Amino acid sequence: DWTPQTIIEQAVSRIRQQVGGQRVLSAVSGGVDSSVATALVQRAVGNQLIAVFVDTGLLRHGEREQVERAFRRSLGENLIVVDAAADFLNALADVEEPEEKRRIIGETFIRIFEREARRLGKIPYLVQGTIYPDVIESAAPDRSKAQRIKTHHNVGGLPAEFDFELVEPLRYLFKDEVRIVGEALGLPEELVWRQPFPGPGLAVRCLGQITAERLERLRAADHIFTTELAQAGLLGRTPPGSPQRIAQAFAVLLPVRSVGVMGDQRTYQEVVALRAVTTLDFMTADWADLPHELLARVANRIVNEVNGVNRVVYDITSKPPATIEWE
Ligand code: XMP
């Protein structure tokens, strides 16, 4: 019978059996799966675990601090935070094409992670937050490839030359089970109930040129939108499958400027698009019919509080034909 406690106990004894007294490396992304997998391995092997968190500079508001808050106490010095924002900004300078962005981010991530791994010496095991739906998907490679229209980048996508043996404690769990296990492990709610976030991060929501200033603009707008949704009870810890649950919501910074008026001054500034969808499997999705007064409040706050933005629009396309992300 299924309780978080029995799952944790089973996973812990499997992990111990697999890795014995050896060291284990984990790449924490701040996402649910890698966080829960890391916490499980920590529970199993304590300070044999070393976790690396790469701050790409492409993260959402407060995300790095959340990861530190969740893991510093249990991992201490074994949590390594790599500040790589400048590396990513340099690598992405003048790149606008979406697939090119994804490729560069994937490569840059691997290069940085590789550097850290080398510094730590030989570590035979690597934690992966593979969950059951990922296992099924890779068992049908042709189908999933045909359906996959974007190059997905995930923290786990390391090249074979690394020669790690994988530790995959979530292999038999579905997403909502992973969240329940995460709660039982004492991970913070904000992390456990977090919406999915693409590996390439804000880069694929910052359309056109990626600069520190534009990323900051996007991050601020996104934070306003998601905070208002959470306060309205529409995002975060809601019962799985409940109809009003927003599966994913975020801001997108568009590569156009439009004319506006502020006081009696003409403005010529950037546009933020808001995206919110309901979906069960992310293969198809409906745009969320959000309360108008909430949309109005969010739009108002964004143009008033975010420098350089004078217009907000709401995305009312479903998937298909649109995808959830804009790039
Ligand atoms: P699309 O935009 O294709 O996205 O409708 C479907 C879901 O996948 C997420 N997504 C990604 N997740 N790495 C990820 O781990 C990626 O490169 C990536 N690209 C998109 C997207 O946020 C949505 O939940």
Automatic annotation (TrEMBL):
Binding-site residues for ATP, renumbered to this chain: S29, G30, G31, V32, D33, S34, S35
User: Which portion of the entire protein is included?
Assistant: 192 to 518 of 518
Gene that encodes the chain: guaA
Q: Which GO terms describe its cellular component?
A: cytosol
Function as written in the Swiss-Prot or TrEMBL entry:
Catalyzes the synthesis of GMP from XMP.
- Tell me its EC number(s), please: 6.3.5.2
Its transmembrane ranges are: none
Tell me the subunit arrangement: Homodimer.
Q: Which GO terms describe its molecular function?
A: ATP binding; GMP synthase activity
Q: What is this protein called?
A: GMP synthase [glutamine-hydrolyzing]
Q: In which pathway does it act?
A: Purine metabolism; GMP biosynthesis; GMP from XMP (L-Gln route): step 1/1
What is the reaction catalyzed? XMP + L-glutamine + ATP + H2O = GMP + L-glutamate + AMP + diphosphate + 2 H(+)
Print the keywords alphabetically.
ATP-binding, Glutamine amidotransferase, GMP biosynthesis, Ligase, Nucleotide-binding, Purine biosynthesis
- Residue ranges of every copy of the GMPS ATP-PPase domain listed in the record: 2-194
The first-level EC class reads ligase
Domain of life assignment: Bacteria
